[in-house]
Q: What sequence folds into this?
């Protein structure tokens, strides 16, 4: 039976490269203390073939069990009385967004920077995570001053297939096939939005084109229905009624700006008696409702809802921002 390797816990958890463990020979008597020690790797309990123990305040763990759980290969060199630890052969850096955000961007650029002769300038990827759910945003920059003729010749289907491959690659790179991938293609310097796209989990990619001024057969963007539907709607903050007077969607920042005027004179007095928590809750509910209606209309989630509460004479009472992904109000 192979004798288990035992190492102090501080050493076992810090090994990150191939090494050879050496020790002096000899023997001595020591007191071992077994305290039903549990071992966890990345929050999960692992079972060891030998029970961990403590000597003089230092806890020792079975090296082979711990190293295997951490992804290392362990080999015993009997001729040299040496333990060889080998790190995993390949580490996929593209999933380590928090450590090196530019890796996935360089990868996307190297693979997708050219589409039928159209050369793209830059790929920018940002990651948000809530629980196990990823939201991946990608912005792609295009210089139309040098690509306009070739861009004009592209068909919608060619662009959609290209974006679909990018979305699939992002989900694979972040090891989350259920991730929400969304993004935009901008003109150089991140000005005009030429198109936006979204892919939620295994659903089909959805693309909206806004480049009718630069490519044949693409209609110019029109005012969204939600911008018309919300006008004159009535909402309340506690018992204080407000009516929507303005709704505007800003494509470049994916934000809806909504203004509401109080319907009663002297609203500023009633407003001053409201609690901040009640105002924030009302703004949050309004932001959630607008985002839900926007998704129904466009199949795209907003980034933010900017809310302005005003008195009957349009004097600003308070402005708040509802952040959709974090579901919070500032």
A:
């Amino acid at each position: 039976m192979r004798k288990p390797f035992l190492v102090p816990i501080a050493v076992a958890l810090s090994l990150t490269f191939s090494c050879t463990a050496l020790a002096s020979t000899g023997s001595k008597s020591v007191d071992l203390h077994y305290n039903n020690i549990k071992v966890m790797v990345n929050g999960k309990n692992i079972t060891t073939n030998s029970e961990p123990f403590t000597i003089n305040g230092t806890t020792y763990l079975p090296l082979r069990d711990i190293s295997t759980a951490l992804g290392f290969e362990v080999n015993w060199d009997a001729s040299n009385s040496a333990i060889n630890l080998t790190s995993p052969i390949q580490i996929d850096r593209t999933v380590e967004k928090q450590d090196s955000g530019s890796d996935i961007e360089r990868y996307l650029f190297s693979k997708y920077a050219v589409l039928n002769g159209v050369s793209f300038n830059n790929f920018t990827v940002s990651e948000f995570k809530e629980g196990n759910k990823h939201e991946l945003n990608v912005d792609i920059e295009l210089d139309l001053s040098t690509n306009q003729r070739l861009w004009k010749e592209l068909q919608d289907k060619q662009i959609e297939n290209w974006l679909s491959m990018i979305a699939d690659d992002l989900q694979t790179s972040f090891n989350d096939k259920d991730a929400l991938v969304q993004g935009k293609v901008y003109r150089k310097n991140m000005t005009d939005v030429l198109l936006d796209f979204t892919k939620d989990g295994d659903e089909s990619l959805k693309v909206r084109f806004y480049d009718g001024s630069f490519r044949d057969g693409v209609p110019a963007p029109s005012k969204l229905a939600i911008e018309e539907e919300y006008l004159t709607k009535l909402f309340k903050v506690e018992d204080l009624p407000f009516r929507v007077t303005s709704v505007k969607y800003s494509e470049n920042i994916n934000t809806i700006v909504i203004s509401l005027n109080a319907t009663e004179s002297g609203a500023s007095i009633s407003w001053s008696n409201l609690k901040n928590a009640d105002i924030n809750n009302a703004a949050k509910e309004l932001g959630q409702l607008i985002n839900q209606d926007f998704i129904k209309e466009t199949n795209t989630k907003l980034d933010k809802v900017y809310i302005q509460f005003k008195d009957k004479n349009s004097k600003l009472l308070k402005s708040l921002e509802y952040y959709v992904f974090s579901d919070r109000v500032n």
